[in-house]
Amino acid sequence: MRPSLLDPLFSSVAALPGVGPKTAKLFDRLLGQDEARVLDLLFHLPTGVVDNRLSPTIREAPLDAHVVIAARVAEHRIPRKYSNAPLNVLVEDDNGDDVLLVFFRNNFDWVLRALPVGEIRWFSGDLKLWNGHRQIVHPRVLDAAALKALKEREPTYGLTEGLHQRNVAKAIDAALAKLPDAPEWLDATLLRREQWPAFAPAMRTLHSPVSPMDLSPDTLARKRLAYDELLSQQLALRLVRAKMRRLRGRPTTGDGRISGAIEGALPYSLTNAQRAALADIRADLASDKRMLRLLQGDVGSGKTIVALLAMATAVEAGRQAAMMAPTEILARQHFERIEPMARAAGMRAALLTGRDRAAERRATLEGLASGAIDIVVGTHALVQDNVAFRDLSLAIVDEQHRFGVHQRLALGEKGEAVDVLVMTATPIPRTLVLTYFGDMDVSNLTEKPAGRQKIDTRAVPLERIDDVIAGIQRAIAPGARAYWVCPLVAENEELEVAAAQERFEDLQKRFGARVGLVHGQMKGKDKDAAMLAFQRGETQVLVATTVIEVGVDVPEATIIVIEHAERFGLAQLHQLRGRVGRGSQKSSCILLYKGPLGETAKARLSILRESDDGFRLAEEDLRLRGEGEILGTRQSGLPGFKLADLSAHGVLLKLAREDAEAILEQDETLTSERGRALRLLLYIFGRDEAVRLLRAG
Ligand code: ADP
Ligand code: MG
Question: Which of 168-192 are b and which e, b meaning 16 or more Cβ less than 10 Å from the residue's Cβ?
Fold first, then answer.
């Protein structure tokens, strides 16, 4: 149960004075919540600060800024009846400088009454130059009392349509008044050393900036709160991890009979990196601790075979293994590659997706329950309630950042003491591994299989698209295959699909039936058919949206064109590029961009041309954009940070990790006085799942 001390923070924004049901809905939209709470409002940080000090004269009032001026009403310019024109009021000061006040769709009578000609009034608003004339649109009209009540500086906030600065400021004030007087959860020595304020004062400070500097992530108040957030997250990760450790593992040792057969049948030998990763995994499996390991490897680094050999070890021990992929296409593809190798070595493999026919599905479920099936590859259909295993001991989750954390854990709950291996093809920078996975063990496939050629990567402006198409024509005549990836349209899948459709029709005019199309809104079986036709070479140009981003394998494809490459992130471009260069032939990647490019886009394209090292690109990507995007948290719904910003607070993360470790070493169950205060922290940052673990433990 949440301590009642925190109740005021968890009450609905609608309960704040001055927030009616209609405004509350706007706050829900603004804060991205179903029912925004007071706490969400407090996490909505100001983005600007306005200076409410009275400007001595109109001439000295800065243009393009928020100003407060005093002026005498000189003239009313009333629009003709029934016209849509605004009401203009000309005001001037003693120097003869004037400002035009503009009122649209207002209650004109009210304005005219409030601003009688000849009277002095005070006005605040954004001063602009329009047609060479100073003007303020919809100024706030202040009387002497209102002027006196003005705060010298006021924060400004991000808004949503229908919500005004004043609504937000008022609600935030009311929210700040609800901050409880909570016991300190941070270490006193740390606080003193860093000179950080306590939680509630820090929150108040963040919401009362006096200069733009106060909005920076480097202020003491912001650092304190960022630290709070990082600490809560590190504590939660450790508690989960400790729970995993407490859960007894089972030693799983193979005798090499199946994995030996698989390895012996491979047309290549494993790279050293693959061998090392396998040794890590087998040691984990053999130990009586639970495995929680991340296998990172660039596209084409050969993760699949490592996964298969790990599964073989589980099967040799008389147990089962499951591998979950994020999409239907991928699950199917993994299965198709794995199944022949598995069968040849004496393992029975099955595929389980949401689209299996009923009879097939029943057979698979029976086989998993009876143990007739040794390994299963599937989508998240694997974690549904009706899926039961005879004895699952290894769960492999591929491309995991597409999954939420709970899905990862859910597969692990399908058996007794299941070892978990997470695979990702987007190498995650070390800092992010720590952030999102805690002290998860990591194996990196840093080495590429021998014989891989560097992909020739070129950036070409969109104006030269005809040359690119002509180039493709020359290449496909002797049988080459090309991907054509269509622009990403921000958060609008429909537009994205429309663009792909249009490009498809366009290329069809050139290449006829040799063009295929695949996008995210197609039916599963149509998608598969399109992929299959391309795989078989029946189509040679495959127009696609980013559905092909992850893992699709057609070794014969040697060209990839990425349209509007400037709209993609670095990691994503790298992923896409990894669709080619999978065979022995020289491949190329054409980044079609629309200029002029911004600095970030320019940097991205040039780094990509230089490097094909996924680990390096991941680090650069982190530098160029936010951590949420890299992990695909935007898509996955995995929450990002509210107050912490890893590019600014990276140092704090390390501190928070050490702190969390020390805290739990001394007080594993968070029952000491400080421990109980830390529980408040976990609630504040939405880590109550971890608190529940404490109780279960
Ligand atoms: P990933 O899943 O890491 O993107 P894959 O497992 O799909 O990579 O492997 C890419 C390709 O490389 C596959 O066709 C696979 O057969 C091949 N491959 C894997 N390991 C090796 C190796 N050690 N030597 C040569 N080819 C390899
Ligand atoms: Mg793969």
Answer: bbbbbbbbbebbeebeebbeeeeee
Co-location of 267 and 345 in the same domain: yes
Confidence class of residue 611 from pLDDT cuts 50, 70 and 90?
confident
Q: How far apart are CA 38 and CA 27, in angstroms?
A: 10
Cis peptide before 596 (omega within 30 of 0): yes
Write the pLDDT tens digit of every residue in 204-233.
999 999 998 999 999 999 999 999 999 998
Give the closest residue (by CA) to ligand 1 atom 25: 449
Tell me 62's DSSP state. P
Residue with CA at minimum distance from ligand 1 atom 10: 300
Give yes or no: residues 112 and 172 share one domain. no
614 Cα to the center of ligand 1, angstroms: 15
pLDDT at position 593 over 80? yes
Residue ending a domain, among 426, 445, 464, is 445
Do 583 and 484 sit in the same domain of this protein? yes
Q: Are residues 529 and 587 in the same domain?
A: yes
Is the domain of 213 the same as that of 262?
no
- Give the three-class secondary structure for 394: strand
CATH number of the structural domain spanning residue 602: 3.40.50.300
Q: Which atom of ligand 1 is nearest to the CA of 551?
A: 4
- 91/123 same-domain check: yes
> What digits encode the pLDDT tens for the residues 225-257?
999 999 998 898 888 777 766 667 889 999 999
- Ligand 1 pocket residue status of 553, Cβ below 6 Å: yes
In a domain, 135, yes or no: yes
Q: Does 470 map to a domain?
A: yes
Q: Which atom of ligand 1 is nearest to the CA of 307?
A: 6
Write down the pTM of the prediction. 0.63
The answer to whether 101 touches 136, Cβ cutoff 8 Å, is yes
Does residue 387 share a domain with residue 280?
yes
* C-beta 426 within 6 A of ligand 1: no
In ligand 1, the atom with minimum distance to the C-alpha of 271 is 23
Where in the sequence is the domain holding 428, given as residue range(s)?
257-445
Within 13 Å of residue 690, how many CA atoms lie on the same side as its CB?
A: 26
Determine the pLDDT at residue 401: 55
Number of domains into which the chain is organized: 5
Query: Given its phi and psi angles, is residue 519 left (phi above 0), alpha (psi -120 to 50 degrees) or beta?
Result: beta
Is 616 a domain residue? no
**Tens of pLDDT, residues 275-315:** 999 999 999 999 988 888 889 888 778 999 999 999 999 99
In a domain, residue 634? The reply is no
Confirm or reject: Cβ of 449 under 6 Å from ligand 1: yes
Asked if residue 277 lies in contact with residue 232, where contact means CB atoms within 8 angstroms, the answer is: no
